[in-house]
Amino acid sequence: MAREIDEVWIDEAIDRYRRIEKLRAEFDRAVVAHSVSVHSPDQSIEVVVTAAGEIVDVRIHGGLRHRDASEFARQIRTVVTSAAEAARWAREKLHGEVFGSFRRLEGH
Description:
It holds the Pfam family YbaB_DNA_bd. With about 110 residues, the chain is of the alpha+beta class.
């Protein structure tokens, strides 16, 4: 007994795949283009990170001459950790915006 091929279902599946690929490309472009700026607790260090997680700029506000090296290092670690968290948050937000209206395949 031959199985019946549901060509409409296959065409819909192909269309959905193409739509997912298009949305994925849009998402990939968005995470690279979107950046977030975070500051150290004392506001002396600013890190700009893309939603993809790439640090694109580090800015130091104020002089370095009289700073304690270990405290400065702690501030850098803190702001880099915050930048990683901000990038993850931005990715999740962008993912929701790009894929949020895409209906799931269940029930088809």
